[in-house]
UniProtKB/TrEMBL annotation:
Domain Amidase: 62-230
Signal peptide (residue range): none
Keyword Transmembrane helix: yes
Gene3D superfamilies referenced in this protein's UniProt entry, alphabetically: Amidase signature (AS) domain, Tetratricopeptide repeat domain
Protein name listed in UniProt: Amidase domain-containing protein
Naturally occurring in which organism (per UniProt): Zingiber officinale (Ginger)
Pfam families: Amidase, TPR_11
Keywords: Membrane, TPR repeat, Transmembrane, Transmembrane helix
Transmembrane intervals: 12-28
Entry annotated with the keyword Lipoprotein: no
UniProt xrefs under PANTHER family: AMIDASE 1, OUTER ENVELOPE PROTEIN 64, CHLOROPLASTIC
TPR repeat feature ranges: 494-527
PROSITE patterns (UniProt xref): TPR (PS50005)
């Protein structure tokens, strides 16, 4: 299993004579970029760590036989200097004396490691841009960033550079997306590039995969992650990483859509949610779907964050998510400084100004640090209670399309804080999360994320494997019909509003439920259920006249709507219309018996 470096042909060299015109320079740079990025700029170093020989028949082959993989340049491989995204780190460190145990586990499983990939400078950042090694090119959106910190890893998988080996495992054969790559995720370093490059990305539960032989970034948050394009390979390799047995696919009992998180999206929200809703309906049935406001749920449960909010002007729900993101950033900066401040002070490396500014943002006091650590435990406990053993939470992975290269957008405080609102949910709770691609919008990848409680990795992986094909099918249907905010049918938008209204009703937010049911009615005036549901909310508010009117409208639309008769009877009773109330209740009883007999007969 000793690593060896394969020989490579010398790079093509462009010689420019007479570079007086800016146009010539620009064209040359473009041409040069195309030539020097034959591997999309994904790799820092090519190498090989070979697996042991396969066992002779009739013994089964190693579980990962024939697969090739690469690792981010934060993992140790014996005989090579771990570069950590900066040439000064390479200059001031010796070659690794041993290979990271997680790499050895995958190699022992039959896979071949073929190289190290580019990461952000000191693995610090989410853009994937690195001035020292150049920025890997996003294969699906070349003018946009690939995302970081594990940018090269995501690009290598998305471009098909590291593929399934069809015959000789010592050669990487270009196949159809069966590669997998390891990366490092503290605040989104695997999930974000997965979203930007349109591939599967897995952040396991915190502490479930060994970090030995990996340069630390933020020890309280660091997790070894996984990229792949193929859901079957993804599922298989993840089980090897986690050292959990294969078994029958488990199914979730609830799939919860965090509506407030989707409100952060900068692309049409309805189209993304519709792909999800239709996929869940087709795979498991609508009964599993629930809506919730994650910020509202977390707010009373994260007491430590109250001391970090400092009177923010945002609403309480958004304030909670922003405070959680702030706590994650503070913890991340503090632990990074603790790990690497001595090296930075002694070596004085040239750092990107933005990274320098972020690193130098320290926590104000020890109390704030204690609050951040307490918030981690509170977030894990809150999500454990929410998701239990069989729940899946769905949020966007990123805010929308990948930012353009060299754009200031990704450096803005608002963009970072809103992005971290999403990534902090799993980072601060230690929950497991998978980024899932769901199509293309404006020539760029779109994704969403599934989250399961800490330790429920097997359920999460099984859910992704079960739903992946259906999600892709619905995404393709959406793209073919030019799915956009304007092309979502009014009926579909009305159903989304109704589901949100149902969630508000269950949370006893009566006025919010009424507003959402009203939105549904405006979009589809011919649905009796919307009127009947709004009537139920009006009853809770004591608005009996409005409830009676809504029930009457519902009955006019659907003469067999039993709930509308019952609710109108209740409203009339409260208004003192006792005779009409009794007549209505009697009619609803006879309808109920009729429906029961009919259903029984059909069954």
């Amino acid at each position: 299993m000793a690593p060896s470096s394969p020989a490579f042909p010398p790079s093509n060299i462009f010689v420019l004579l007479g570079v007086g015109l800016a146009g010539i320079l620009l064209m040359t740079r473009r041409l040069r970029r195309r030539v020097t990025k034959e591997d999309f700029g994904a790799f820092v170093q090519r190498l090989q760590v070979l697996p042991p020989p396969p066992p002779p028949p009739p013994k089964a082959p190693h579980p990962l036989t024939g697969l090739t993989f690469a690792v981010a340049d934060a993992f140790d491989i014996e005989g090579y200097v771990t570069g950590f995204g900066h040439p000064e780190w390479v200059r001031t460190h010796e070659s690794a004396l041993r290979t990271s145990p997680i790499i050895l586990a995958l190699v022992d499983g039959g896979a071949t490691c073929v190289g190290k990939t580019v990461i952000d400078e000191l693995a610090y950042g989410i853009s994937g841009e690195n001035n020292h090694y150049d920025t890997p090119e996003n294969p699906l959106a070349p003018e946009r960033v690939p995302g970081g910190c594990s940018s090269g890893s995501a690009v290598a998988v998305a471009s098909g550079l590291v593929e399934f080996s069809l015959d000789n495992i010592s050669q990487a054969v270009m196949g159809d997306g069966d590669a997998y790559i390891e990366g490092v995720d503290a605040v989104g370093g695997v999930r974000i590039p997965g979203g930007y490059c349109g591939i599967l990305a897995f952040r396991p539960s915190y502490g479930s995969v060994s970090n030995m032989g990996v340069i630390p970034v933020s020890p309280s948050l660091d997790t070894v992650g996984l990229f792949s394009k193929d859901p079957n390979v993804f599922h298989r390799v993840a089980h090897i990483l986690l050292q959990i047995p294969f078994g029958g696919l488990r199914q979730p009992r609830s799939i919860m859509i965090a509506d407030d998180c989707f409100e952060l999206l900068k692309i049409p929200t309805s189209s993304v949610i519709q792909v999800l809703v239709k996929s869940v309906e087709k795979q498991f049935g609508r009964r599993l779907l629930k809506h919730l406001n994650l910020g509202d749920y977390l707010s009373p449960r994260l007491h430590s964050l109250k001391q970090l909010q400092n009177g923010t002007k945002n609403d309480e729900s958004r304030s909670t998510l922003l405070s959680l993101a702030n706590a994650m950033q503070s913890l991340y900066n503090h632990e990074f400084r603790n790990s690497h401040e001595q090296w930075i002070s002694s070596t004085k490396p040239v750092l990107d100004p933005f990274i320098s500014a972020q690193i130098n943002r320290s926590l104000a006091n020890t109390l704030a640090l204690d609050c951040c650590h307490s918030a981690r435990e509170e977030t894990r406990s809150a999500l454990y209670s929410l998701l239990k053993d069989d729940g899946i939470l769905v949020i966007p992975t990123v805010l929308g399309l990948p930012p353009k290269l060299n754009a200031k957008q990704i450096l803005s405080e608002e963009y970072l804080s809103h992005t971290f609102c999403l990534s902090s949910v799993a980072s601060m709770s230690g929950c497991c999360q998978v980024t899932i691609p769901i199509g293309i919008h404006e020539k760029s990848p779109v994704s969403l994320s599934f989250i399961a409680r800490h330790g429920a990795d097997s359920l999460l992986l099984d859910t992704v494997k079960s739903m992946y094909a259906t999600l892709q099918e619905e995404a393709n249907i959406a793209s073919k019909s030019n799915f956009s905010k304007s092309s979502i049918s009014k009926k579909e938008s009305a159903e989304i509003a109704k589901e949100k209204g149902n969630a508000a009703y269950k949370d006893k937010q009566w006025q919010k439920a009424i507003n959402l049911y009203t939105d549904a009615i405006k979009l589809n005036e011919k649905n009796a259920t919307y009127y009947s549901n709004r009537a139920a909310a009006y009853l809770e508010m004591g608005s009996y006249l409005q409830a009676e009117a809504d029930c009457t409208d519902a009955i006019n639309l659907d003469k067999k709507n039993v709930k509308a008769y019952l609710r109108r009877g209740t409203a009339r009773e409260m208004l003192g219309y006792y005779k009409e109330a009794i007549e209505g209740l009697s009619l609803s009883l006879s309808l109920s018996l009729s429906v029961s007999l009919s259903v029984s007969h059909i069954t």
